[in-house]
Design a protein that fits this description.
2 copies of one chain form a homodimer.
Chain A: E1 4-10, E2 15-20, E3 26-32, H1 41-58, E4 68-74, H2 80-89, E5 94-99, H3 100-109, E6 114-119, E7 123-129, E8 132-137, H4 149-164, H5 172-180, H6 185-194, H7 197-201, H8 204-212, H9 216-240, E9 245-249, H10 262-265, H11 275-288
Helix pairs in contact in A: 1-2, 3-11, 4-5, 4-9, 8-9
InterPro entries (chains A, B): ATPase_BadF (IPR002731), ATPase_NBD (IPR043129), cNMP-bd_dom (IPR000595), Euk-type_GlcNAc_Kinase (IPR052519)
Protein name (chains A, B): N-acetylglucosamine kinase
GO molecular function (chains A, B): kinase activity
Chain lengths: 295, 295
């Protein structure tokens, strides 16, 4: 073998790196800070390099970035300008930026056709169909991502105001949320005006928690959310057919299944590995075959 | 009689004034620019004064603001600081700021108990019950105002993306909206990220237009919107009882009735006068009786 293989899984909060030999045998791992190539490409470059060096250190090796071939799965990869800027400045012998969804799918289902649904603060569905990638939803909180943590949290605040106004019955969930805002609906409005998706998403664990206890407001919210996920999964199946594997990933993946339609629930499988492992696998294949990975 | 009576109806885009004698006989009208006391109280003061002077001119009279008693129905009246600042600086002999909803209700249903639903870019319901005012909804676009123009427009963009992703069937409405964004869903996302309620509301006329032609997407959006209005009206009736009058006001008022539940549709009545007339009526009563108006 010649040189090293590196997988990078980077996003808005952290950047993780896994170092392997040319056969994909793991040697070490590293972790650094945010690597959002859209909002701050220079910081992303710094953290990608740092995570790579830490992976070499973790393996007990002197960093040899110039002898390393990397696949980087990064959020924001669909904006050409950012990708070009970052790719030109990466310190590796060869590197390719793909979407964070593509490495997650590789990790979860390996080389097979199938799909993943990432249900976290946002929602997006990535399909591999005869080697081709497609994504569904994931357009963001304002007009998409039905069933996402952000949308569920927003619905929780909305339902709290509906209960306050006696438009819908008061419930323990609505009481609990109202209490967090000192019983003052105007504080909810102030919060919502400036809230980012992650801010709304902070109320989502409470929704699942109260739904478990049979709270009607929480169950109504999850009915809306699960219906959004169910409909998207129907669209996924229309592409993959019944044979395709399906995994749910993301923070809400363990919580959602009981609320999904049975036709989907019974077809879910556990992911076989994480996104970082997926990135390493793709890198091994790409550089062994001397060919690019489709993103 | 001594002095003049002035009604002011002010909001984010304009300020209207109506001048009357102490018996409420209309003498003249004036109109000036924005008078949002929350976002720009000094400009609001300038435009209120200008509209009042123009009403005197319209009546063929020399402005006598210091001999004028005014009721001002202004958006943003629920924030005490702004009200205090503006009230202290108004040029009138006596003046009182009430909500824009209170003067609209007075105009629409007069002195009776009852309610109005203002369905425009936002939605809010104002109830007068044994002389006491209450409002329902109206907490703003992010977590309230179900069925408002802003929410309908947002739903239209959301449905367009769902159709683009084949999660729901493509329709003529979704095609028309997608065409406005050059067939590029990313342009919808860019728009939505920065859109204010009025920006979303620009797509709402199209929703009603296509619903008239039986478009399934448009009908689905209006079903959601009308259900939000129906539920709020149920909460209104729980306060007013069946005897109370009900008027819909605002830009969507002429469009919504065919989509509302029959129990509400059959109870709607036409407003008897506009908000500015309501402000004058309240001023005549307040200053004739030498007592304040409740807001």
């Amino acid at each position: 073998m010649t040189g090293f293989i590196l997988g990078i899984d980077g996003g808005g909060t952290s950047c993780r790196a896994a170092l392997a030999d040319a056969d994909g045998v793991m040697l070490g791992r590293g972790r650094s800070g945010a690597s959002n190539i859209l909002t701050d490409p220079d910081t992303a470059l710094k953290h990608i390099t740092e995570a790579a060096r830490l992976a070499f250190e973790d393996a007990g090796l002197k960093p040899r970035l110039d002898a390393t071939q990397a696949i980087l799965g990064l959020a924001g990869n669909n904006v050409g300008d950012a990708v070009g800027y970052v790719t030109a400045r990466l310190p590796f012998a060869r590197s390719q930026i793909v979407s964070d969804g593509v490495i997650a799918l590789q990790g979860a289902i390996g080389d097979e056709d199938g799909a993943i649904g990432i249900v976290g603060t946002g929602t997006v569905y990535i399909i591999r169909d005869q080697g081709q990638f497609r994504s569904i939803a994931g357009w963001g909180f304002q007009v998409s991502d039905l069933g996402s943590g952000a949308r569920l949290g927003q619905l929780a605040l909305q339902e709290t105001l509906l209960a306050f106004d006696k438009i819908r019955p008061m419930s323990l969930l609505a009481e609990a949320i109202l209490a967090e805002f000192d019983g003052n609906p105007e504080l909810i409005v102030d919060f919502a005006r400036l809230a980012k998706p992650g801010d709304f998403g902070r109320y989502t664990p409470k929704v699942f928690e109260f739904a478990d206890q049979g709270d009607e407001t929480a169950l109504r919210i999850l009915k809306v959310g699960a219906s959004g996920v169910d409909e998207a999964l129907d669209a996924v199946y229309a592409v993959t057919g019944a044979a395709g594997k399906l995994c749910l990933l993301g923070g809400l993946a363990p919580l959602y299944p009981p609320y999904l339609a049975e036709r989907h629930r019974t077809r879910l499988s556990e992911p076989r590995a994480d996104a970082l492992t997926g990135a390493v696998e793709l890198a091994v294949k790409a550089y062994a075959e001397k060919s690019g990975v489709r993103a």
